[in-house]
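Dear support,

We are seeing what looks like truncated structure output for some complexes. This example has two components. We would appreciate it if you could run it in full and send us the complete token output so we can diff it against ours.
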Amino acid sequence: QVQLVQSGAEVKKPGASVKVSCKASGYTFTSYDINWVRQATGQGLEWMGWMNPNSGNTGYAQKFQGRVTMTRNTSISTAYMELSSLRSEDTAVYYCIAVAGTLWFDPWGQGTLVTVSS
Amino acid sequence: QAVVTQEPSLTVSPGGTVTLTCGSSTGAVTSGHYPYWFQQKPGQAPRTLIYDTSNKHSWTPARFSGSLLGGKAALTLSGAQPEDEAEYYCLLSYSGARLVVFGGGTKLTVL
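Here is the complete output from our reference environment:
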């Protein structure tokens, strides 16, 4: 059974970067892509991109290209999402999800709240 | 990038039937967009109700069904229950499922 455990809440200043981790268990980490989705308070879901843990290949939503980097450490079955040049609008809960082709696995990671505030 | 549209809000009476829709700015939604429907309740992560247009998970109540209707993906709730009050999001895949777009969500009220 897919289990994804994310790192804890972060508070960052505008212009800084944040790196959120997502530790996978219950399956072979390199078998499924990891997608990242965020949700600002009271707002909808926003897809950020995907990362293939086997190859390291990535694909990012146009909105985040140049500002997001998705990586992994296969030795500890952990995926990372780093977002740079943070602004207040980046304040949101960030989720990781395991995806096989078009199949999105439940449950998602528990979410990581990133707060950007001066 | 494509824009995916949903009704912002809908209201259904207990025991009633309601259909939520999911459209694409690029044209008709087809099975090739692998439409997904997620349910999200306050303070919880989203959970899949329907995947690949009409497939259900073991936890999906039988009163929910997915289909294609009039060029859109559709989620129909037949026999609404108070616990169905939630936000519903659709997701469409593009470019061989390497580009994904969420709809803006539909807030469903059971009243």
